[in-house]
Protein backbone atom coordinates (compact mmCIF):
# COMPACT_ATOMS: atom_id res chain seq x y z
CA UNK A 1 0.00 0.00 0.00
CA UNK A 2 1.40 3.44 -0.89
CA UNK A 3 2.45 5.73 1.94
CA UNK A 4 1.66 8.71 -0.29
CA UNK A 5 -0.65 8.71 -3.32
CA UNK A 6 -1.23 11.76 -5.51
CA UNK A 7 -4.30 11.61 -7.77
CA UNK A 8 -5.14 14.15 -10.48
CA UNK A 9 -3.32 17.02 -8.79
CA UNK A 10 -3.70 20.42 -10.46
CA UNK A 11 -2.13 23.61 -9.11
CA UNK A 12 -2.75 27.06 -10.54
CA UNK A 13 -1.28 30.56 -10.28
CA UNK A 14 -3.42 33.68 -10.45
CA UNK A 15 -1.96 37.07 -11.42
CA UNK A 16 -3.49 40.18 -12.91
CA UNK A 17 -6.85 38.50 -13.32
CA UNK A 18 -5.32 35.61 -15.29
CA UNK A 19 -5.03 31.98 -14.18
CA UNK A 20 -2.44 29.50 -15.40
CA UNK A 21 -1.77 25.89 -14.40
CA UNK A 22 1.77 24.97 -13.35
CA UNK A 23 0.69 21.41 -12.50
CA UNK A 24 -2.05 19.64 -14.41
CA UNK A 25 -3.65 16.34 -13.42
CA UNK A 26 -0.47 14.81 -11.98
CA UNK A 27 -0.73 11.33 -10.45
CA UNK A 28 1.87 9.07 -8.83
CA UNK A 29 2.38 7.09 -5.63
CA UNK A 30 5.28 5.96 -3.49
CA UNK A 31 5.52 3.11 -0.98
CA UNK A 32 7.73 2.59 2.06
CA UNK A 33 11.31 1.84 1.08
CA UNK A 34 10.71 2.84 -2.54
CA UNK A 35 11.96 5.82 -4.55
CA UNK A 36 10.09 7.76 -7.21
CA UNK A 37 12.18 10.06 -9.38
CA UNK A 38 10.49 13.12 -10.89
CA UNK A 39 12.41 14.45 -13.88
CA UNK A 40 11.98 17.17 -16.48
CA UNK A 41 13.38 20.49 -17.68
CA UNK A 42 13.22 23.64 -15.57
CA UNK A 43 9.64 24.89 -15.46
CA UNK A 44 8.09 21.44 -15.93
CA UNK A 45 6.28 21.62 -12.58
CA UNK A 46 8.49 19.35 -10.47
CA UNK A 47 9.03 21.70 -7.54
CA UNK A 48 5.46 23.04 -7.57
CA UNK A 49 4.25 19.44 -7.33
CA UNK A 50 6.42 18.95 -4.23
CA UNK A 51 5.31 22.24 -2.66
CA UNK A 52 1.68 21.28 -3.32
CA UNK A 53 2.22 18.02 -1.43
CA UNK A 54 3.87 19.88 1.45
CA UNK A 55 1.23 22.62 1.58
CA UNK A 56 3.90 25.27 1.08
CA UNK A 57 2.75 26.96 -2.11
CA UNK A 58 3.78 30.60 -2.65
CA UNK A 59 1.23 33.45 -2.62
CA UNK A 60 -1.05 33.39 -5.66
CA UNK A 61 -0.81 29.61 -6.05
CA UNK A 62 -3.36 27.03 -4.92
CA UNK A 63 -4.34 23.41 -5.43
CA UNK A 64 -7.48 23.54 -7.57
CA UNK A 65 -8.28 19.83 -7.91
CA UNK A 66 -7.06 16.35 -7.08
CA UNK A 67 -6.18 14.44 -3.93
CA UNK A 68 -3.00 13.96 -1.90
CA UNK A 69 -3.57 10.86 0.22
CA UNK A 70 -1.23 10.25 3.15
CA UNK A 71 -1.60 6.85 4.79
CA UNK A 72 -3.39 7.18 8.11
CA UNK A 73 -4.27 10.84 7.60
CA UNK A 74 -6.39 11.09 4.46
CA UNK A 75 -6.53 13.76 1.78
CA UNK A 76 -4.11 16.55 2.70
CA UNK A 77 -5.96 19.00 0.45
CA UNK A 78 -9.01 18.72 2.70
CA UNK A 79 -7.61 18.45 6.23
CA UNK A 80 -7.43 21.40 8.63
CA UNK A 81 -4.37 23.64 8.80
CA UNK A 82 -3.63 22.26 12.27
CA UNK A 83 -3.59 18.71 10.92
CA UNK A 84 -1.43 19.75 7.99
CA UNK A 85 1.06 21.45 10.29
CA UNK A 86 1.19 18.35 12.49
CA UNK A 87 2.12 16.03 9.60
CA UNK A 88 4.44 18.45 7.79
CA UNK A 89 7.90 17.74 9.11
CA UNK A 90 6.86 14.68 11.12
CA UNK A 91 5.23 12.45 8.47
CA UNK A 92 6.45 14.28 5.35
CA UNK A 93 9.70 16.26 5.22
CA UNK A 94 11.55 18.08 2.45
CA UNK A 95 15.14 18.91 1.59
CA UNK A 96 15.11 22.06 -0.50
CA UNK A 97 17.33 22.85 -3.46
CA UNK A 98 19.09 25.86 -1.94
CA UNK A 99 20.40 25.21 1.56
CA UNK A 100 21.33 28.87 1.99
CA UNK A 101 17.66 29.84 1.87
CA UNK A 102 16.22 26.78 3.62
CA UNK A 103 18.53 27.24 6.63
CA UNK A 104 18.19 30.37 8.75
CA UNK A 105 21.42 32.40 8.35
CA UNK A 106 20.95 34.03 11.77
CA UNK A 107 20.75 30.81 13.79
CA UNK A 108 23.43 28.28 14.64
CA UNK A 109 23.27 24.74 13.31
CA UNK A 110 22.50 23.46 16.81
CA UNK A 111 19.58 25.84 17.23
CA UNK A 112 18.01 24.78 13.94
CA UNK A 113 18.29 21.04 14.50
CA UNK A 114 17.19 21.31 18.14
CA UNK A 115 14.17 23.39 17.08
CA UNK A 116 13.08 20.61 14.72
CA UNK A 117 13.49 18.04 17.50
CA UNK A 118 11.57 20.23 19.97
CA UNK A 119 8.65 21.00 17.67
CA UNK A 120 8.20 17.53 16.19
CA UNK A 121 9.44 15.16 18.91
CA UNK A 122 9.22 17.24 22.09
CA UNK A 123 12.94 16.83 22.90
CA UNK A 124 14.59 19.57 24.94
CA UNK A 125 17.83 20.45 26.68
CA UNK A 126 20.63 17.92 26.81
CA UNK A 127 18.60 15.17 25.12
CA UNK A 128 17.91 17.41 22.12
CA UNK A 129 21.54 18.48 21.83
CA UNK A 130 22.76 14.88 22.08
CA UNK A 131 20.35 13.83 19.34
CA UNK A 132 21.44 16.78 17.17
CA UNK A 133 25.03 15.62 17.52
CA UNK A 134 24.04 12.06 16.58
CA UNK A 135 22.23 13.33 13.48
CA UNK A 136 25.26 15.25 12.27
CA UNK A 137 27.38 12.13 12.78
CA UNK A 138 24.83 10.06 10.82
CA UNK A 139 24.97 12.62 8.01
CA UNK A 140 28.76 12.26 7.85
CA UNK A 141 29.49 15.81 9.01
CA UNK A 142 33.14 16.03 10.17
CA UNK A 143 33.82 17.54 13.60
CA UNK A 144 30.11 17.57 14.49
CA UNK A 145 30.68 19.08 17.94
CA UNK A 146 32.31 22.16 16.38
CA UNK A 147 29.72 22.42 13.60
CA UNK A 148 26.88 22.75 16.10
CA UNK A 149 28.08 26.21 17.11
CA UNK A 150 28.62 27.42 13.54
CA UNK A 151 26.29 29.36 11.23
CA UNK A 152 25.25 28.20 7.73
CA UNK A 153 27.56 30.65 5.93
CA UNK A 154 30.55 29.08 7.67
CA UNK A 155 29.90 25.72 6.01
CA UNK A 156 30.54 24.53 2.46
CA UNK A 157 27.60 23.80 0.15
CA UNK A 158 27.95 20.07 0.70
CA UNK A 159 27.98 20.43 4.49
CA UNK A 160 24.97 22.74 4.40
CA UNK A 161 23.01 20.13 2.46
CA UNK A 162 23.99 17.51 5.03
CA UNK A 163 22.74 19.81 7.78
CA UNK A 164 19.51 20.41 5.84
CA UNK A 165 19.13 16.63 5.57
CA UNK A 166 19.69 16.31 9.33
CA UNK A 167 16.92 18.87 10.01
CA UNK A 168 14.54 17.06 7.63
CA UNK A 169 15.32 13.58 8.96
CA UNK A 170 15.30 14.54 12.65
CA UNK A 171 11.61 13.60 13.19
CA UNK A 172 12.08 10.29 11.26
CA UNK A 173 9.49 11.07 8.51
CA UNK A 174 7.62 8.41 6.51
CA UNK A 175 8.13 10.37 3.27
CA UNK A 176 11.13 12.48 2.32
CA UNK A 177 11.03 14.83 -0.67
CA UNK A 178 14.49 15.79 -1.96
CA UNK A 179 14.24 18.67 -4.43
CA UNK A 180 17.42 18.85 -6.56
CA UNK A 181 19.51 18.09 -3.44
CA UNK A 182 22.82 17.94 -5.34
CA UNK A 183 22.51 21.13 -7.43
CA UNK A 184 25.73 23.20 -7.58
CA UNK A 185 27.76 20.50 -5.80
CA UNK A 186 30.76 18.86 -7.39
CA UNK A 187 30.35 15.27 -8.56
CA UNK A 188 32.20 13.73 -5.64
CA UNK A 189 30.02 15.52 -3.08
CA UNK A 190 26.93 14.68 -5.14
CA UNK A 191 27.74 10.98 -4.99
CA UNK A 192 28.36 11.14 -1.24
CA UNK A 193 25.07 12.94 -0.57
CA UNK A 194 23.06 10.54 -2.73
CA UNK A 195 24.65 7.56 -1.02
CA UNK A 196 23.75 9.13 2.32
CA UNK A 197 20.11 9.46 1.26
CA UNK A 198 20.07 5.87 0.00
CA UNK A 199 21.53 4.60 3.29
CA UNK A 200 19.09 6.59 5.43
CA UNK A 201 16.17 5.40 3.33
CA UNK A 202 17.17 1.76 3.79
CA UNK A 203 17.80 2.22 7.52
CA UNK A 204 14.52 4.04 8.16
CA UNK A 205 12.36 2.30 5.55
CA UNK A 206 10.98 5.63 4.37
CA UNK A 207 9.55 6.54 0.98
CA UNK A 208 11.67 8.92 -1.09
CA UNK A 209 10.59 11.35 -3.81
CA UNK A 210 13.68 12.51 -5.68
CA UNK A 211 13.27 15.59 -7.89
CA UNK A 212 16.08 16.10 -10.38
CA UNK A 213 16.99 16.94 -13.97
CA UNK A 214 19.81 14.39 -13.90
CA UNK A 215 18.72 11.15 -15.54
CA UNK A 216 21.86 9.41 -14.30
CA UNK A 217 20.81 10.08 -10.71
CA UNK A 218 17.35 8.67 -11.41
CA UNK A 219 18.80 5.55 -13.05
CA UNK A 220 20.94 4.86 -10.00
CA UNK A 221 18.48 5.82 -7.24
CA UNK A 222 14.85 5.40 -8.30
CA UNK A 223 12.49 2.45 -8.63
CA UNK A 224 9.90 4.37 -10.66
CA UNK A 225 10.28 7.50 -12.73
CA UNK A 226 7.73 10.22 -13.42
CA UNK A 227 8.66 12.32 -16.48
CA UNK A 228 7.04 15.76 -16.48
CA UNK A 229 6.69 18.32 -19.24
CA UNK A 230 4.79 21.63 -19.06
CA UNK A 231 3.07 20.62 -15.84
CA UNK A 232 1.90 17.19 -16.99
CA UNK A 233 3.16 13.66 -16.51
CA UNK A 234 4.04 12.41 -20.01
CA UNK A 235 5.53 9.05 -18.99
CA UNK A 236 5.46 7.06 -15.75
CA UNK A 237 6.63 3.59 -14.79
CA UNK A 238 9.47 1.31 -13.73
CA UNK A 239 12.90 2.89 -14.24
CA UNK A 240 14.46 -0.07 -16.03
CA UNK A 241 11.58 -0.41 -18.49
CA UNK A 242 11.44 3.28 -19.35
CA UNK A 243 15.18 3.77 -19.66
CA UNK A 244 15.59 0.69 -21.84
CA UNK A 245 12.59 1.41 -24.06
CA UNK A 246 11.17 4.94 -23.63
CA UNK A 247 7.84 5.45 -25.36
CA UNK A 248 7.18 9.18 -25.21
CA UNK A 249 9.20 11.35 -27.65
CA UNK A 250 10.14 13.72 -24.83
CA UNK A 251 11.58 10.92 -22.70
CA UNK A 252 13.51 9.66 -25.72
CA UNK A 253 14.86 13.15 -26.37
CA UNK A 254 15.98 13.53 -22.75
CA UNK A 255 17.82 10.22 -22.84
CA UNK A 256 19.40 11.02 -26.21
CA UNK A 257 20.79 14.28 -24.82
CA UNK A 258 22.78 12.49 -22.09
CA UNK A 259 26.53 12.31 -22.93
CA UNK A 260 27.91 8.78 -23.23
CA UNK A 261 31.47 7.64 -22.67
CA UNK A 262 31.03 5.01 -25.37
CA UNK A 263 30.25 7.61 -28.07
CA UNK A 264 32.70 8.88 -30.66
CA UNK A 265 34.91 11.73 -29.47
CA UNK A 266 33.77 14.03 -32.28
CA UNK A 267 30.07 13.20 -31.87
CA UNK A 268 27.96 16.32 -31.27
CA UNK A 269 25.73 16.32 -28.22
CA UNK A 270 22.06 16.06 -29.09
CA UNK A 271 19.68 18.71 -27.86
CA UNK A 272 15.93 19.24 -27.90
CA UNK A 273 15.08 22.08 -30.31
CA UNK A 274 13.01 24.99 -29.04
CA UNK A 275 11.99 25.82 -25.48
CA UNK A 276 9.29 24.59 -23.09
CA UNK A 277 6.14 26.73 -23.19
CA UNK A 278 5.35 29.23 -20.46
CA UNK A 279 2.47 28.17 -18.22
CA UNK A 280 0.69 31.32 -19.43
CA UNK A 281 0.95 30.22 -23.07
CA UNK A 282 -0.13 26.56 -22.90
CA UNK A 283 -2.92 25.91 -25.39
CA UNK A 284 -5.06 22.95 -26.38
CA UNK A 285 -3.24 19.84 -27.48
CA UNK A 286 0.01 18.17 -26.51
CA UNK A 287 2.38 20.76 -25.04
CA UNK A 288 5.36 18.99 -26.60
CA UNK A 289 3.91 18.97 -30.14
CA UNK A 290 5.86 22.04 -31.31
CA UNK A 291 9.17 20.38 -30.41
CA UNK A 292 8.21 16.80 -31.30
CA UNK A 293 9.73 15.17 -34.41
CA UNK A 294 6.75 12.82 -34.92
CA UNK A 295 3.84 15.17 -34.16
CA UNK A 296 0.81 15.16 -36.47
CA UNK A 297 -2.44 17.17 -36.71
CA UNK A 298 -4.21 15.46 -33.81
CA UNK A 299 -1.36 16.35 -31.44
CA UNK A 300 -2.06 20.08 -31.67
CA UNK A 301 -5.84 19.65 -31.45
CA UNK A 302 -6.27 17.22 -28.53
CA UNK A 303 -4.51 16.59 -25.23
CA UNK A 304 -3.31 12.97 -25.07
CA UNK A 305 -4.35 11.07 -21.91
CA UNK A 306 -1.87 9.14 -19.78
CA UNK A 307 -2.67 5.54 -20.70
CA UNK A 308 -1.07 2.11 -20.86
CA UNK A 309 -0.56 -0.85 -18.57
CA UNK A 310 0.49 -0.75 -14.90
CA UNK A 311 4.18 0.10 -14.75
CA UNK A 312 4.19 1.66 -18.23
CA UNK A 313 2.06 4.75 -18.82
CA UNK A 314 2.60 7.39 -21.50
CA UNK A 315 0.69 10.34 -22.96
CA UNK A 316 1.29 10.20 -26.71
CA UNK A 317 -1.09 9.64 -29.64
CA UNK A 318 1.77 8.21 -31.74
CA UNK A 319 2.27 5.46 -29.16
CA UNK A 320 -1.48 4.73 -29.17
CA UNK A 321 -1.56 4.40 -32.94
CA UNK A 322 1.57 2.23 -32.97
CA UNK A 323 -0.05 -0.18 -30.51
Short structural description:
It is built from 13 helices and 12 strands. By secondary structure, it is of the alpha/beta class. α4 packs parallel to α7, α5 crosses α7 (157-169) and α7 (157-169) packs parallel to α8 (187-204).
Q: Which SSEs are present, and which pair or pack?
A:
Blueprint: E1 4-15, E2 18-30, E3 35-39, H1 46-54, E4 61-70, E5 74-75, H2 81-87, E6 92-95, H3 99-102, H4 109-121, H5 125-138, H6 144-148, H7 157-169, E7 175-179, H8 187-204, E8 207-212, H9 215-221, E9 224-229, E10 232-238, H10 239-244, H11 249-256, H12 297-301, E11 307-309, E12 312-314, H13 317-322
Helix pairs in contact: 4-5, 4-7, 5-7, 7-8
Structural class: alpha/beta
Helix content: 25-40%
Which spans have pLDDT < 50 for at least 5 consecutive residues? none
- In CATH terms, the superfamily of the domain at 1-91 and 176-183 and 206-262 and 275-323 is P-loop containing nucleotide triphosphate hydrolases
* Largest sheet data: 8 strands, mixed
Name given to the CATH architecture of the domain at 1-91 and 176-183 and 206-262 and 275-323:
3-Layer(aba) Sandwich
* Gyration radius over CA: 21 Å
Amino acid sequence: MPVLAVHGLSTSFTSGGRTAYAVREVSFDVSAGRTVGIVGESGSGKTITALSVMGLLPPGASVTSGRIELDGVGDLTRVSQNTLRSVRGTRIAMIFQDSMTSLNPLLTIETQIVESLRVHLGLRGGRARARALELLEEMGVPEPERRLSQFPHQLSGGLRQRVAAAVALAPDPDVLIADEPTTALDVTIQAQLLELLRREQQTRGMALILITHDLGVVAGMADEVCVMYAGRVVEYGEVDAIFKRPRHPYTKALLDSVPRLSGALDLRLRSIPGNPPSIWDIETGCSFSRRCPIAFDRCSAETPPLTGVPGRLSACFAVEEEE
